[in-house]
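note to self: dont lose this again. the chain is below, predicted strucutre after it. 250 aa total, dont forget to put it in the shared folder this time
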Amino acid sequence: MTSSMIPDEARLHRYVDGQLDPVERQEVESFLARSPDWAARVAGWKRDAESLRCGAPRLPHNPALEPAAIRRRLRARGRQRLAVAAMLLLTAGLGGTAGWTMRDRSFAAANPPMADAVQAYRVFAASRSNAVEVSTTAGDGMQSWLASNLGRGGVALPDLSGFGLRLVGGRLLATEDGPAAMVLFEDGQARRVAYYVRPGAPFDTDAMAERRDGGLLARYWSHGGRRYAVVAPADDAQAAEIARILRATS
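---
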């Protein structure tokens, strides 16, 4: 090493840890004598090393705990973090569309369509004593109630007596987009079908879709600024035809 060269940090760390041969040590000490800033820095490293060694005199020697080794690991960890950050930045730049697609899919998985309709059935339709807040057996009376609460002409309710279903009543519910209503029908075996109506943006498809949630099956669609669903036990053989009829009148 010539007098004008600065020793690399690895050599300086070896000097601090007493790992240089006499010639190398003399070269480093000559450099430090000419460089007060480096001399102060290396002196600090020495104090750190001595503090670490004095703090645990009874521990066996472990090269991984040497100050130089610790500093090398910290530098490597810093470089690794920078590499990860660069990779994420590159991924964001190249795969923004894919990233948003995955985000949308994750959001959709956590918020399945018409989950509120299924929950309303599970909470209220399964109750034998508190299922509805408005009891009626007259379709006209229920349609007036729907019109007063949902507005825009209310909702047309067809006669489902051909399926053995009688009108039980309705319940008003709240959503983030405005009031929703659940209309409940029941057959002679106390099997219930719920017709759920709420405001909301149209779905991506114009076709009727369905989703299973436990033992329930919801068939849903959108029309005219509203979302509709027919919710019934998944094994209800008539529910699909009932949904088709209700969709035709929505």
